[in-house]
Amino acid sequence: MAAAVTAMAGVAVGTFAVTANGASRPEAADRRARPTIVLEHGAFADGSSWGGVIERLHADGYSVVAAANPLRGPHSDAAALRTVLDHIKGPEVLVGHSYGGSVISQAATGDPQVKALVYVAAFLPGPGENALGLTNKYPGSTLPGALDPVPYTNADGTTGTDLYIKQDKFRHQFAADVPANQAALLAAAQRPIAQAALEEKATASAWQSKPTWDIVTTQDLNIPAAVQRFMARRAHAHTTEVAASHSVAVSHPGLVADVIEKAARATR
Prior knowledge:
By secondary structure, the protein is an alpha/beta fold. It has one domain (35-266): Alpha/Beta hydrolase fold, catalytic domain (Rossmann fold, 3-Layer(aba) Sandwich). 44% of the residues lie in helices and 18% in strands. The chain contains eleven helices and nine strands. The chain has helices at residues 2-33, 51-59, 74-87, 100-107, 131-135, 167-174, 180-189, 195-199, 225-234, 248-251, 253-266, and strands spanning 36-40, 64-67, 92-97, 114-120, 147-153, 159-165, 193-194, 212-217, 238-242. Strands 2-1-3-4-8-9 form a six-stranded parallel β-sheet, with helices on both faces. Strand 8 (212-217), helix 9 (225-234) and strand 9 (238-242) form a beta-alpha-beta unit. Helix 2 crosses helix 11 (253-266) and helix 6 (167-174) packs across helix 7.
């Protein structure tokens, strides 16, 4: 009887090992093949704006990094993002929201680890272009009237202007399809962008050489839909349009995650 129990245990253990190995090895290989998703927020936001998107990507087995964007200028912000990218092992998909699109366009240039770019209600500047000029290419942005400029002085004595969105105008301007209480939190926690960052011209555009996806927000009051469509067509991007505000990652996290995953699957 003891011998039979031992034999049965051996069979059970052996069966479990085969089943476990058979299930885990493909899963481990699948995870290794998946790119890391790197999210770059834009102006008037921070990394928490990607919360709903991150939850969905994690649930589907993706590693995610939501980088902190200094919002000082495309070149210096791209250098900060490069330190994050250089620390990650393996392939990456870069995702930029709003001004974050300018940053990923610069940071990904010449980097073979970056396999795809995803722009979310974002800028795709060409060399010599800046966010301010692109915003004004077509009418529709009401951002100037919602801004709250705050002068600052650096430690070296140089001065500049930080731009916020006035809190009482934030929801209408930036997040009209986000619940009021959530929009109020976003308004209070918003991070300012240096005015000079919107005027700094791009010198490189990774979308010219890398596969590109784009989410165009048709109810956007920051970057008019016509501007977004122009940039998406020029980049030959795989484009998804949605009736959403500029804060589409908050209001439609499932859609944003789906587009990111499409880009990620196309790289494998």
